[in-house]
Amino acid sequence: MTWIFENWDKFLEASGVHLRLAVIPVLLGLVVAIPLGWLANRSRSASAVLMPLSNVLYTVPSLAMIVIMPVLLGSKILDEINIIVALTIYTVALLIRNIADGLHSVPGHVVAAANAMGFRPLRRFLTVELPLAVPVTIAGLRVAMVSNISMVSIGALIGLGGYGQLFIQGFQSNEDIIWAGLIGTLVLAFIGDVLLQLAGRVLTPWVRAGR
Amino acid sequence: MGWLFDPAHWSGSTGIPVRIVEHFTYTWLTLLIAAVIAVPLGAFVGHTGRGGFLIVGLTNGLRALPTLAVLIIVVLWAGIGDVPVYTALVLLAVPPIMAGTYAGIRAVEPSIVDAARGVGMHEGGVLLQVELPNALPLVFGGFRGAALQVVSTATIAAYVGAGGLGRFVFDGLAFQEYDQMLGGAVLVAVLAVLVDLVFVGLQKLTVSPGVVGAGSGGNR
Amino acid sequence: MIEFRAVTKRFEDGTIAVDELDLTVEAGTITVFVGPSGCGKTTSLRMVNRMIDPTSGTILVDGKDVLSVDPPTLRRGIGYVIQQAGLFPHRTVLDNVATVPLLSGWDRRRARTRAAELLETVGLPAEFGKRYPAQLSGGQQQRVGVARALAADPPVLLMDEPFSAVDPIVREGLQDELLRLQAEIGKTIVFVTHDIDEALKLGDKVAVMRTGGHLAQYAKPAELLSAPANDFVANFVGKDRGYRTLTFLSADVPVHEIDAVKVGDTVTSNSWKLVVDDTRRPLGWLSPVDGSVEVTADRLIAGGSLYDGGTLRSALDAALSSPSALGVTVDAEGAVVGVVHADDVLKALAAARAAGEVPS
Description:
Chain B is mainly α. Chain B contains 9 helices and no strands.
């Protein structure tokens, strides 16, 4: 365990890169998935395309996804954009289903009541349906966050940064470094998960009030 | 894509067909070993209801565990070779299958289980004839998740000396041949999708049409 | 016959579900356990087939202590029907019904033949056998549940709130069906419900239970209504129990003649006239008129309920619901026989009371 304390700056740098590569895709994925989830919930034909597509995308192994990215994006193999887009795709694939399910679970009488009070569709979506879909969406975000944090290390295999570099260095020289990376990953995952849970609570005070 | 369609790469002891077979063997053998361990455990815990939190915690914790680190640690301990690779793969495949089996059995309506006992089934009969057949969609969900995990991790295993399609990715990386990396990656993606389809097909064949609900895949 | 002897069930958390229950269910009858939730009625039922074992006391089925038989063997000899039917979703309706015969070692063909017969017995078309439970309505699923319980022809049938998850109209149909079936098969049935009306309708005897697992009263329905043992039972059977007592008294009410007229007739009378069709089935009433008037369809006033010679309750209801205060009596073909008067019903009630038919 001595490695962490002797190389604190290296550990912090790896943590920063790891965090950036994991969290940006979660945020991007959420932004993309909300309209797509809305579409999938609203239109049967959109759902018939989006659901199988996200299943297939979710099936592609992460290393393969990262390696294929440069062809699709025209980027260099060492560019961080590859892993960011790859992880964004997984996040979107996961969240579409969650958001569509969440929207679907909003009771019909609630939507009807909002209509009866004169909400226009966009405002109704943003202020009534979307908030009610928050719990299911948060559940999806938690899975996406934790698996992204664990998957970022794969990028190290083709030369990207983050804790994965520590695994590789550890494999080649000193096992201690692997444990440093592993602990870093688990701590980040734990913190990310707790923050999302807290966000969920803050955003949905009515969930606890009902218990 | 020229690399992929070059006939020279489709023959020889390190050709594409050999690597596909290697990769596929990793996958099915791992799933078989994992099933033998995970299904009885998950079924037992699901049936008795004891220790469920352990399974749920284990699967959630595993999601956070980087597969690369697991592979490297197992190889550092057990050395290079097939045994460490299979050990790591089985380690990663057991939790999703166990969790799927457990969740599937817990999700069976209590009234159905009550009726099964009420008509005079023994506990074994309740589990095998009623709980498991109704749990199948979620059991398959677990298997699909595990299969993705194994196909994905077997690719990475090439980094620590294993065979399979991952070889093309890492050899391509070492020789700076992006064509070969890409070809390997595409083959892995296609294999993963095909394996998933096999499970979808198996599920259609084995799950009774009276049972509603189907599980979807887990994480890679 | 099922005997409960000083049966007590105390759960691990200390709650007493059933407290010293002593009760005998006569062979070939329907006994209903009724009471509010937490009164131990379901626990009592589930102790009969050992889904729950008693803390103390003895339960005998046909003289044999149930604790002396291993549970699966015991249960194969006792039919069991539960609220959500509990059908196996992965098996066809036919295979669901064949479950117990197969468990008992019958060969598949014989078990399926028996299952097909039973579907007919419970009033389901044979082609339903190929369906899966999810393709049936709630009421149909319950019928399959009953068929499954009857498959091995067990002498005893346990029914745990079997009809409470279906809508009221279907429930009434299932209740009638059960009474019809019971007249045919004569099983010893224990039936649990929280619905007092269901209990009074189905039970040869009714055990009213109260929270804490106490037996409040065990009696025939008429007796529960006319002579409740205490305030709890009186409250539980409801406010209109005096009226409902009439359900259990067969009517000995004089039937009076009535002038029946037909559409097209010309009538001169200042009293109510009953209008009938060519087969003397009632069509409606004509209100008293001044002078003479022709009977036309648009002058008809809809009649009340019909009295077909059953209980005092239906006689009184026919009189009360009729616009003329005369209860129309019909024969088996639905043709008008005459009318009954409400005050005759009350006189019949007084006579029954004097004869001791109504405990007071």
